[in-house]
Design brief:
The complex is a heterodimer.
Chain A (H helix, E strand, L loop, with lengths): L19 H5 L9 E3 L16 H5 L15 E7 L5 E7 L1 H4 L4 E5 L10 E2 L6 E2 L5 E2 L5 E7 L2 H9 L2 E6 L6 H4 L20 E9 L2 H7 L2 E9 L11 E6 L5 E5 L4 H12 L6 E5 L15 H11 L3 E4 L2 H7 L2 E2 L2 E9 L5 E11 L7 H10 L10 E8 L6 E2 L6 H19 L3 H8 L19 H10 L9 E2 L2 E2 L17 E14 L8 E11 L2 E7 L9 H13 L3 E4 L17 H28 L5 H4 L2 E4 L2 E4 L4 E4 H5 L4 E8 L18 E14 L4 E12 L6 H20 L33 E4 L16 H18 L5 E2 L3 H4 L1 H6 L8
Parallel strand pairs in A: 2-15, 11-34, 13-14, 16-20, 18-19, 25-26, 32-33
Antiparallel strand pairs in A: 1-26, 2-8, 3-7, 3-9, 4-8, 5-6, 10-19, 11-17, 12-13, 12-15, 17-18, 21-22, 23-31, 24-25, 24-30, 27-28, 28-29, 31-32
Chain B lengths: L1 E3 L4 H10 L4 E3 L5 H6 L7 E4 L9 E3 L3 E5 L4 H7 L5 H8 L4 H4 L4 H7 L6 H8 L2 E6 L2 E6 L4 E3 L2 E2 L6 E8 L5 E6 L10 E8 L4 E7 L9 H13 L2 H4 L5 H13 L11 H25 L2 H6 L4
Parallel strand pairs in B: 1-3, 2-3
Antiparallel strand pairs in B: 4-5, 5-10, 6-7, 6-10, 8-9, 11-12, 12-13
Helix pairs in contact in B: 3-4, 4-7, 8-10, 10-11
Classes of the chains: A alpha+beta, B alpha+beta.
InterPro entries (chain A): Ald_Oxase/Xan_DH_a/b, Ald_Oxase/Xan_DH_a/b_sf, Ald_Oxase/xanthine_DH-like, AldOxase/xan_DH_MoCoBD1, AldOxase/xan_DH_MoCoBD2, AldOxase/xan_DH_Mopterin-bd_sf, Xanthine_dehydrogenase_dsu
Protein name (chain A): Oxidoreductase
Pfam family, one (chain A): MoCoBD_1
Chain lengths: 825, 299
């Protein structure tokens, strides 16, 4: 067990620490450098503790919503109450007349001709322009000296809407005469309301289908999941004396934000200085912009620092959600349990704006076979424009929806063949060397069968755990403390699932990270400083980067500088990529520093000892040592009062786009695999579910920080559990309005819904990745949902095709048979 | 918005008389949510937090006088024997933090059909002690809920306490939510047996515009138990009898479809909970020594 210094934000951070007060001027609450020292080595493979962990659990961590600045005013966004309407007029005079209001802005007040933004397609208006396309779309901005004043002023803006018919699904979006959401966009597919479409064809499905002994078709629907991060969108924009702006914000990718913000403001990129503020979770929901441009616009307009903080209600409208999906699959297999072919069609609802829909489509199609070998496929995935809330990135990113479908199909096939569902999966499991439906060869370990074996081999949790000598412990039962059963109607079920997720950005994207590493002496001790623009959103990059620096540089004191745009892009904290890509950049920058230090040592001390010239030299324990273990010099003496610094970019192997017609191409760089076994107990009379145990086995290549890896796997598993039994944004099918934008009615699992989560971590090195590591954050989110659903199907015998499963789905037969169903008594 | 902070109960009554539209706030479970969401912007908030007697309770031989602000945690910890149904209901309220703050007075003041305390108060036959500068009165719980989020309080009245007779027989409470803790009721059900009076009372939550009793079901069950001399024999209740009772409880519902559940599901679930809770209370009654049963003591 290593020990650590936990330096709270605001405390001095050592000589190489950033000058946060100067940088943020009078702003407080922006994160400062996090110094980590360790008596033990604290290098890679150790479970070093998060520097911000104690602060977070004691409520002292400064989140982006905690920031404050002298003379600060508050921004507020007026949003559309309807899903689709023409804006006939906007009258802001009532708001402007209110005391305490500093500015009101609409589309017409935008400073430049760049008035749209977007991650991949610039289709999202900064403020609505003549038309709103979804419930909650931003229409106008208010800045006032108090948030309540801003809200009240927003209520006094008169917007006349002329409502338009809504499109909410494939049938209505593609119907003849359907309203076209983005008429100016060049058609991309058969209909302008299709955002993106990706077919994949390989082999001869028709011929293969004729060889199948059994063919199983299934249709599945996947609800709209929210990232439900705990820290709502928030940030602080401070106008600079040079006409620029300093923006402190919780985001996932500073440079992507910057690329979208600066043109709208009419500023060169270097005049928009961004610093990461304390992030309260992300899960994909911070990949798109939320309040960034709005705060900057108001700050530049008023000349005052502007803070914007969404409340939970607004947060549900302030970020994209996971795409709901309709999935149709046909699988065939021979009598001996080998898959013959697969056909599928996946329709994703992208909502009103594109966001990350094209990339989500690419994942859904290319990963729709799952971790199985199927030589003959005919796949189509597409995303629609509708008037539903915009959907985009969320942990698992297209692979989650596909996994829910193909894993249900695997169980149906196994049942049809009378085979054990795990054995059936193992017979078709991909392995190293297998071909993807895209024609790409899997060139790293793919231990799919082994992961399944491990979760299946675990001992089962004991039956009837609720029975105690004093009676039933309701916490162990479906319904929990609500006291709905003492064992009546409770049936156990077991389900398995396995999934695969691509790691890193795919389809030819130039996916790189930048790292700057510096070494110098402080207090007689060598200290390394790592500076990247990596957004720490809870994934543990701050820990891992320090571990890499300790391992590569052989020193114990490492300072992680705050992430900002003063250094090059670190890419997105998403796609399970940060440890891989920014970790790779930090590793290489450290190695460059090491070479420079050794050169410096040879210059200074080479004449004193032959080994400087002849031996292989290492940095270890703050010294230069030979590979035979002989110490040649203290790093402090080598460095003296000089600092050594290296900054470089690092890229993973390039990928290629998928062919638009055949889907062929080496589109992905790495795959992550996880398998789950879920054990559930279902109250079959009330339709309530208790997940009793959710076991996971995952290959991570190299557990850089085993504690963090297990935390990621457990967190991802629970997020998938939530999707299985409770999490769904309900959108009214007639009005396209969100019906449950609150944590009162959008439920996420509590600790009493969270079962024991045993985790089995494999470390089969990927020879292409730094340290052999494999991105770990998303894979556990894939298979937990289908595993829980499989277990509920096993318990109830029901053919459940929608997730999340709701009580009324589980007691549908009783409801259909009930008297007085239609007429009230 | 003015924040009134009376230091005494008398001052609070005077403030409420002066500002009848003032919204009382104690734990803030409902009021703060409404304010934070902008659903409500009262001219005056009347903070009852400084009035110590609201957070206390008194008991005499038969009755608990439960201060309107006694937090649910206290009910769970200290009044389990006297008020078992309400203690079970208290367990299902929100999170530990909110149970440390919220009390029954707030549930009654809001009078939401989803309030967790209501079914237990209905089954226990509670009385609401309402007071104003004009005087004090007891409102029977059966007459308290007058509509969706409406109650029988006059504009100048505050809830001082709830008077609840100590349990004289087994009580149960059960609530359906789509999460195993910290969840608003999809529907809820409470039952109390009164062996000495050979009566049964019920309460249903979230399955009608107001919390309601299943009076027809109560009458049917009381008659059936008498007819079959089950109070005396302590024999098991036949499944058919429990099923009939459950059906009548379901029929007492007048639910709606909403984002939390369908009307059909609510009616069905109330029936299941009625059958199960009747079985649990009856088994507890049967398990008690015969002498206790005859005297109708707490079981």
């Amino acid at each position: 067990m290593s020990t650590h210094d936990h330096t709270p934000p605001g405390a001095a951070t050592g000589p190489a620490g950033p000058p946060p007060r100067a940088r943020t001027r009078k702003a407080t609450g922006a994160p400062t450098g996090l110094t980590q020292g360790s008596r033990a080595r604290g290098g890679i493979g150790e479970s070093t503790l998060r520097p911000d962990g104690t602060l977070k659990v004691t409520g002292e961590f400064a989140y982006s919503s905690d920031m404050w600045h002298e003379d600060m005013i508050w921004g507020h966004i007026l949003r559309s109450p309807v899903a689709h309407a023409e804006i006939v007029s906007i009258d802001v005079s009532g708001a402007l007349a209110q005391a305490g209001v500093h500015a009101v802005m609409t589309y017409d007040d935008l400073p430049t001709d760049v008035r749209y933004y977007g991650l991949e397609i610039q289709d999202t208006p900064v403020l609505a322009h003549g038309r709103v396309r979804h419930h909650g779309e931003p229409v106008a901005l208010v800045a006032a000296d108090h948030p309540e004043t801003a809200r009240r002023a927003a209520d006094r803006i008169r917007v006349e809407y002329r409502e338009l018919p809504v499109v909410t699904d494939e049938a209505s979006a593609l119907a003849p005469g359907a309203p076209v959401l983005h008429p100016d966009r060049a058609p991309h597919g058969a209909h302008p309301n299709i955002v993106h479409r990706q077919p994949i064809v390989r082999g001869d499905v028709g011929a293969a289908a004729r060889r199948a002994d059994v063919v199983v078709t299934g249709e599945y629907t996947f609800g709209m999941q929210d990232q439900a991060f705990l820290g709502p969108e928030s940030g602080l924009a401070v106008p600079g004396e040079d006409g620029g702006v300093d923006l402190f914000v919780a985001t996932q990718w500073l440079h992507s934000d910057l690329r979208q913000i600066a043109p709208v403001l009419g500023l060169p990129a270097h005049k928009v200085r961004m610093t990461l503020a304390g992030v309260g979770g992300a899960f994909g929901g911070r990949e798109d912009l939320s309040m960034q441009i709005h705060a900057c616009l108001l700050a530049l307009r008023t000349g005052k620092p502007v803070k914007i903080v969404y409340n939970r209600f607004e947060s549900f409208f302030g970020h994209v959600h996971r795409h709901p999906a309709k999935l149709r699959f046909e699988h065939g297999a021979t009598r001996d349990g080998k898959l013959t072919h697969m056909k599928c069609r996946i329709v994703l609802d992208g909502g009103a704006y594109a966001s990350a829909s094209p990339a989500v489509v690419g994942n859904a199609s290319s990963l729709s076979v799952g971790p199985y070998v199927v030589d003959h496929v005919d796949i189509e995935a597409l995303a629609l424009y509708t008037n539903n809330p915009p959907c985009g990135a969320m942990r698992g990113f297209g692979a989650v929806q596909a996994c829910f479908g193909y894993e249900a199909q695997m169980d149906r096939l196994a049942a049809e063949l009378g085979m054990d569902p795990v054995e059936f999966r193992q017979r078709n499991a991909m392995e190293q060397g297998s071909l993807m439906p895209t024609g790409q060869r899997v060139d790293a370990p793919a231990p799919v069968a082994e992961l399944l074996r491990r979760v299946q081999a675990r001992p089962m949790p004991p039956e009837r755990q609720w029975e105690t000598t004093e009676g039933a412990d309701v916490r162990q039962l479906p319904g929990g403390l609500s006291n709905t059963t003492h064992g009546e109607g409770v049936v156990r079920g077991v389900g398995y699932a396995v999934g695969m997720k691509n790691v890193g950005f795919s389809e030819g994207f130039d996916d790189y990270s930048t790292a700057r590493v510096r070494m110098e002496v402080s207090g007689g001790e060598p200290v390394a400083t790592v500076h990247t623009a990596m957004a720490e959103v809870g994934q543990g990059g701050v820990t891992v980067h320090a571990q890499i620096a300790r391992t590569e540089l052989g020193i114990s004191r490492v300072t992680i500088q705050p992430a900002d745009t003063g250094v090059g892009s670190a890419g997105s904290t998403s796609a399970s990529r940060q440890t891989y890509v920014t970790g790779g950049a930090v590793r290489n920058a450290c190695r460059e520093v090491r070479e420079q230090v050794l050169r410096m040592g040879r210059r200074k001390f080479g004449t004193y000892h032959r080994a400087w010239a002849t031996a292989k030299l290492l940095l270890e324990g703050g010294k230069v040592v030979t590979d035979a273990g002989e110490a040649l010099a203290d790093l402090a003496d080598v460095l003296g009062d000089e600092a050594v610094e290296a900054e470089l970019e690092w890229r993973h192997r390039p990928t290629r786009p998928f062919d638009p017609h055949t889907g062929q191409g080496d589109g992905h760089v790495q795959y992550a695999f996880a398998a789950h076994r879920a054990v559930v107990e279902v109250d079959t009379e009330l339709g309530l579910v208790k997940v009793v145990e959710l076991a996971c086995a995952q290959d991570v290549g190299k557990a850089m920080n085993p504690l963090s890896v297990v935390g990621q796997i457990q967190g991802g598993s629970v997020q998938g559990l939530g999707m299985a039994v409770m999490e769904e944004i309900v959108v009214d099918p007639v009005t396209a309005q969100v019906r449950n934008p609150s944590f009162t009615d959008y439920l996420i699992p509590t600790i009493l819904d969270t079962p024991p989560l045993p985790v089995d971590v494999l470390e089969l090195a990927d020879p292409h990745a730094p340290y052999g590591l494999r991105g770990a954050g998303e894979a556990p989110t894939l298979s937990s949902t289908p595993a829980v659903l499989a277990a509920v199907r096993d318990a109830t015998g029901l053919d459940l095709t929608h997730t999340p499963v709701r009580p009324e789905h589980l007691v549908a037969a009783a409801l259909a048979a009930a008297p007085g169903r239609t007429a009230r008594n | 918005m003015d924040f009134l902070r009376p230091a005494s109960w008398e001052d609070a009554l005077a403030a409420k008389a002066e500002h009848p539209a003032a919204v009382p706030i104690a734990g803030g479970t409902d009021v703060m949510v409404e304010i934070n969401f902008g659903h409500r912007r009262p001219e005056h908030l009347l903070d009852l937090g400084r009035i110590e007697e609201l957070a206390t309770w008194e008991t005499d031989r038969d009755t608990v006088r439960l201060g309107a602000g006694v937090p649910y945690t206290k009910i769970m910890e200290s009044l389990r024997a006297e008020l078992p149904g309400l203690a079970l209901a208290s367990h299902t309220v929100a999170s530990p933090q909110i149970r440390n703050r919220g009390g029954v007075g707030g549930n009654l003041g809001t009078a939401s059909p989803a309030g967790d305390a209501h079914p237990a108060l209905l089954a226990a036959g509670a009385e609401v002690e309402a007071e104003s500068v004009r005087g004090s009165r007891l409102i029977p719980i059966d007459a308290f809920y007058t509509g969706v989020k409406r109650n029988a309080l006059a504009p100048d009245e505050l809830i001082r306490a709830v008077r609840i007779r100590k349990a004289r027989g087994p009580q149960q409470f059960s609530k359906v939510g789509t999460r195993n803790a910290m969840v608003i009721a999809v529907c809820a059900f409470a039952i109390a047996l009164y062996p000495a009076e050979r009566r049964v009372r019920t309460g249903i939550g979230s399955a009608a515009p107001t919390p309601v009793r299943a009076e027809e079901a109560e009458a049917f069950l009381a008659a059936a138990l008498d007819e079959e001399r089950l109070w005396d024999s302590g024999a098991r209740i036949a499944p058919s009898l429990a099923e009939k009772f459950a059906g009548l409880c379901a029929a007492a519902c007048d639910p709606i479809d909403d984002v939390r559940g369908t009307a059909d599901y609510r009616r069905h679930a109330v029936g299941v909970m009625a059958r199960r809770t009747l079985t649990w209370t009856w088994e507890a009654y049967r398990a008690a020594p015969a002498a206790d049963r005859r005297e109708g003591g707490a079981v």
